[in-house]
Amino acid sequence: MNGPYQAGTPCWIDLMVPDQQAALDFYRDLFGWQGEIGPAETGGYSVCTLKGKPVAGIMRASNPDGTVPDPMPPTVWTTYLATDSIDSTLKSVTDAGGTVMMGPMDVMDLGRMAVVSDPTGAVVGLWQYGTFAGAGIVNEHGALIWNELSTGDTGAAAAFYSAVLPMGTAKSQMPGAEEYTEFTVAGRAIGGMMDLAAMPTGVPPHWLPYFAVDDVDSVQAAAVRAGGTVKAPAFDMAAGRMAVLADPQGGTFAVIAATAAEQPA
Fold it and tell me: What is the pLDDT of residue 67?
């Protein structure tokens, strides 16, 4: 990826964990990422890289004053959607029934960020680029390839995201996945949406990152050896072969070996 992402496109992901170094070690071994705990002025935030390009962030869960939260928040991956203006997008968020959970906040000269909740309860980040556009490599082994919203009200979610960002929705054109909803930006599929009814009881609304891998089964086995867990064992589906995994601290993510014809542009 070169240059900024179009508004509405997932552009970055990060993980908040109790043990930052353990997470860095796990994803280094699983995907080949490089990263270290960052400087104090950035709260220790780690920008992980692959082939020298930024792919994801990992940060230690902490209160604004640096103390350890009690209770500890759940370990989650956050998807960030690109926006050209944080302030105007946040106004649209509240106008459309969403909730601003954090921000807006300047991140040095890198950009501006906020975290919001959509009306169905799913949390998502917003990123307005400055000197940092987001993920510098995608759609390759170990890098982000897809982001998917699971929600209990797909109609309300579709209306919300189209109201706050230039995002549309369309039924998938993949054979065998005609009921799957895709988010689009400028006519291109940039993410997906599923009904929570397809999930186990008790799973909350959420955005899930997918990482491209060359061999789903071997990555699944490696995750288990490293202390991770399998949420959905490797299976074949319309877009390729995939699995849903969790790291040892509970951060859930999917891996997919996508068929070439179905990889996002």
Answer: 81
Give the C-alpha separation, 138 to 118, whole Å: 26
Distance of CA 91 to the CA centre of its chain: 23
Structure tokens at 162: 């189209």
Strands (E), the chain: 10-17, 46-50, 53-60, 76-82, 99-107, 111-117, 123-129, 144-151, 168-171, 181-185, 188-195, 206-212, 229-237, 240-246, 252-258
Q: What is the mean pLDDT of residues 175-191?
A: 89
Residue 186 zone, left/alpha/beta (φ > 0; ψ -120 to 50; rest): left
Q: What is 90-114 written as a DSSP string?
A: HHHHHHTT-EEEEEEEEETTTEEEE
The model's pTM: 0.94
- Asked if residues 161 and 118 have their Cβ atoms less than 8 Å apart, the reply is yes
User: Nearest 5°: CA angle at 88, between 111 and 116?
Assistant: 70
Give the Cα separation of 240 and 154 in Å (integer).
Answer: 24
Main-chain dihedrals φ then ψ at residue 101, nearest 5 degrees: -95, -30
Q: What percent of the chain has pLDDT over 90?
A: 82
Q: Where are the alpha helices (DSSP H) in the chain?
A: 20-31, 86-95, 154-164, 216-225
